[in-house]
């Protein structure tokens, strides 16, 4: 029997400040780590290897994050369009460097807060619930440059001050909070996730586990303060999830997949939901001599203040093989693994696997038994505007329809799924490539990679499709 999505299901979309706002120097904003990332092939190298903090070089590179899609000035029009689709919630992030331009100030920047006051007021006027991500790949550049990012313990206090400001300011308006976007992406993109770069490959694990430890403590402290300041608030962790499959039933492949799954998908959630480092994680760190330095109250804080819900992004699954010699590796994304012969992939090499979402939801719920929230999912694809100005993105509709059907199946399986926010509900700058042409939106934005474009918004076919999905509570998905 197929269930409808629940009555109070949080339907919506997701965006991040650094990828949509633009206005990178307005309203007293400081530079963030995203502002120095160019588009083009050097970007991925910087994100994954993080050899050093780049300087802005406009002679050599383009910086699409500087303009984004100008959400900073156009948010009233954009939120109106979200409301027209029937959004019940919007997941967005606050750009830390608008509130604390350098990150280590005592007093916040009032102009930065005033901007988010207006965004949140507009959402509430349309009865759209704000789901606020506190840190989404946009920490102040100064903290990365002068303090070395999250490997420095002082960041816990700077983040705490920032959270304190947000919790007090939005205590009446915001119930749903997310501390760190894709916290486990530290393993893949340390620069973006931790603001750290890795001096030598040997230092990698040491830096990552230390940085993560500080984020775990900071997140638990945020949970504590959020609950104290905003009774009834819900604070979630956010994990980049790709369920891992063994390439074959060879126990070596199964073991390899199991190990990858635990470290990449579960390690951070085990700490943040269950409140303690898992035994396999302790062993992994001990064997490599990379246990983080801790202070006496850290473990107690982590145990006492776990998150209320687990939110995650899902774009693809991942396949692992013990001996990779005879199969091709996946290319084009940061997740890795080997090619799965049963799956098609996007133009950017991301394998498309709707059933993987049902598998993931079941695995997560079996393990954690807390509410789950899909806060990112979608297809990055190039769109064509045809003569009459319409955009027929049936490929996107097919992707989203199949994933939503899988989510509905998981609800039938008994999973407590509270919401779904499609990634990049309006086209924005890609995080991994810095491109505009990698579009996820229901709303097209006229902006091209060569810098041209009017920024005009247009409704794609998927806009009307999603509007109908929400209006019918997903009843007619597969009809
Ligand atoms: C997630 C991030 O990893 O994936 C987003 O939280 C990002 O910031 C999204 O944009 C899609 O990735 P990309 O590289 O296609 O923009």
UniProtKB/TrEMBL annotation:
EC numbers: 3.2.1.21
Entry keywords, A to Z: Glycosidase, Hydrolase
SUPFAM superfamilies: (Trans)glycosidases (SSF51445)
CC per GO annotation: cytosol
GO biological process: carbohydrate catabolic process
Keyword flag Magnesium: no
One Pfam entry name: Glyco_hydro_1
Superkingdom per UniProt: Bacteria
Gene Ontology molecular function, alphabetical: beta-glucosidase activity
Annotated active site: 376
EC category name: hydrolase
This protein's record includes keyword Hydrolase: yes
Family: Belongs to the glycosyl hydrolase 1 family.
Protein name according to UniProt: Beta-glucosidase (Gentiobiase) (Cellobiase) (Beta-D-glucoside glucohydrolase) (Amygdalase)
Organism, as annotated: Treponema primitia (strain ATCC BAA-887 / DSM 12427 / ZAS-2)
């Amino acid at each position: 029997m197929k269930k409808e999505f629940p009555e109070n299901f949080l339907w919506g979309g997701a965006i991040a400040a650094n990828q949509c706002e633009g206005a990178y120097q307005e309203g007293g904003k400081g530079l963030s780590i995203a502002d120095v990332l160019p588009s083009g092939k050097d970007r991925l190298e910087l994100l994954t290897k993080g050899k050093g903090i780049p300087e802005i070089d406009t002679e050599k590179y383009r910086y699409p994050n500087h303009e984004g899609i100008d959400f900073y000035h156009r948010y009233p029009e954009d939120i109106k369009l979200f409301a027209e689709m029937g959004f019940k919630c919007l997941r967005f992030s606050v750009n830390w460097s608008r509130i604390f331009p350098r990150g280590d100030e005592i007093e916040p920047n009032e102009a930065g807060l005033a901007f988010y006051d207006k965004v949140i007021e507009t959402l509430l006027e349309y009865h759209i619930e704000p789901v606020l991500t506190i840190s989404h790949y946009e920490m102040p550049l100064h903290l990365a440059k002068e303090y070395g990012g999250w490997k420095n313990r002082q960041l816990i206090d700077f983040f705490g001050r920032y959270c304190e400001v947000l919790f007090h300011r939005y205590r009446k308006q915001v119930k749903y909070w997310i501390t760190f976007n894709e916290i486990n992406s530290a393993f893949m993109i340390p620069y973006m996730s931790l603001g750290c770069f890795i001096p030598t490959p040997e230092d990698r694990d040491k830096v990552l586990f230390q940085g993560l430890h500080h984020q775990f403590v900071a997140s638990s402290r945020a949970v504590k303060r959020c609950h104290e300041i905003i009774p009834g608030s819900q604070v979630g962790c956010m994990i980049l999830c790709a369920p891992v499959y063994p390439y074959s039933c060879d126990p070596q492949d199964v073991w390899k997949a199991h190990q990858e799954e635990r470290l990449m998908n579960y390690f951070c959630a085990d700490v943040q939901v269950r409140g303690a480092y898992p035994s396999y994680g302790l062993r992994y760190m001990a064997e490599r001599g990379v246990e983080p330095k801790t202070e006496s109250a850290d473990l107690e804080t982590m145990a006492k203040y776990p998150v209320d819900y687990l939110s995650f992004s899902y774009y693809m699954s991942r396949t692992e093989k013990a001996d990779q010699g005879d199969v091709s590796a996946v290319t084009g994304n940061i997740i890795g693994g080997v090619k799965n012969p049963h799956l098609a992939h996007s133009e950017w090499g991301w394998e498309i696997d709707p059933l993987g979402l049902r598998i993931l939801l079941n695995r997560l719920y079996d393990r954690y038994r807390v509410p789950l929230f899909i806060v990112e999912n979608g297809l990055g694809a190039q769109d064509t505007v045809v003569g009459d100005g319409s955009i027929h993105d049936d490929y996107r509709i097919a992707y989203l329809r199949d994933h939503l059907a899988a989510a509905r199946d998981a609800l039938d399986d008994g999973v407590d799924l509270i919401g779904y926010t499609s990634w990049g509900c309006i086209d924005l700058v890609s995080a991994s490539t810095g491109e505009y042409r990698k579009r996820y939106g229901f709303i097209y934005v006229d902006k091209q990679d060569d810098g041209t474009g009017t920024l005009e918004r247009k409704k794609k076919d998927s806009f009307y499709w999603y509007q109908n999905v929400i209006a019918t509570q997903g009843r007619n998905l597969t009809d």
